[in-house]
Amino acid sequence: MHGLGHSEFLVCEADEFDRSFLALHPVIAVITTVEAEHLDTYGTVAAMEEAFVEFANSVPFYGAVVACLDDPGVRRLLPHIRRRTLTYGFTSQADLSARLWELTPQGARARLVFSGQELGEISVPLFGRHGLSNAMAACTVALEMGVPFPTIVQAVGSFSGVARRFEIKGELNGVTVVDDYAHHPTEVMATLQAAHQRFPGRRLVVVFQPHLFSRTQAFAREFGEALLEADVAFVLPIYPARESPIPGVTAQLVVDAAKAAGHRRVEALPSLQEAAESLPRLLQPGDVLLTLGAGNVVELANALVRGGAA
Q1: Strands, DSSP E only, in 95-151?
Q2: What's the whole-model pTM score?
Q3: Do residues 68 and 137 make contact, with C-beta atoms less than 8 angstroms apart?
């Protein structure tokens, strides 16, 4: 891990794709959500959940599992986890719970209660309910490590975010350009809701690039329903990544699903280049343009901000 810093602690984002997270042996493992995903690797949801249980139980006896009690998939795992577990969530049944929480255009705030004791208020410059939930996960880890609550308040309050997670890229003729890595229906929905929170009253134009043929095939309906949160939606061709095409599986599946769900302003775009050329003519001052996907759609956001081609 040379060159990654000098702290005695290492924070790693674990990925269940190809079971790679099972090669990690964390002292504290955080599980935020467990949903049907990467079924090309696991085959079934049950097999995927078994892998999460194995990951949780790889924590040493002196460690802890931090789990989101709001998530149904996580709750299904809890009876099978044999390690000490701390839960967090918006429910009062969680070890760390949020009370009187609020989402505003400036971020989120909540009063936290830990093991029945009120700690105080946190304010985080993050957007969407999921942003506050993730902040609560970090607070739970910090409390487990003995960090004083005033230090936690200062840390979460100054967090500036990470690349490709609701990242404001810049402005284009009065249009705010935002990019996000969201590539699962739940993530897409959460990100669009966060955009409405951050930019209330502004028209939301979304360019979504589906990632993987298998994921698009499995979740076309859910993607279409999630796009209802956008005022105008464009869908790019599927980014294949590691996969070969599946006959009949195209971006049009998502477009058709969105229309079936009631969206009146959704269409497919043939390429990033076409999007870069046509969007400046379609966008209006005051719009928010949100690019979504785990592929190369970020190139579109970058190109629009700098005024060049994708």
Answers
A1: 96-104, 107-114, 117-124
A2: 0.89
A3: yes
Kindly state which CATH superfamily the domain 167-306 is placed in.
Mur ligase, C-terminal domain (3.90.190.20)
Choose between 38 and 122: higher pLDDT: 122
Q: What is the pLDDT of residues 90-127, one digit of tens each?
A: 999 999 999 999 999 999 999 999 999 999 999 999 99
At a CB cut-off of 8 Å and minimum separation 6, what does 63 contact? 26, 27, 28, 29, 83, 84
Q: Which residues contact 69 (CB under 8 A, 6 or more apart)?
A: 75, 87, 88, 89, 91, 93, 94
Q: What is the dihedral of CA 300, 303, 308, 310, to 10 degrees?
A: -30
Token pair listed for 162: 């990470």
What CATH architecture does domain 17-157 belong to?
3-Layer(aba) Sandwich (3.40)
pLDDT for 159 equals 94
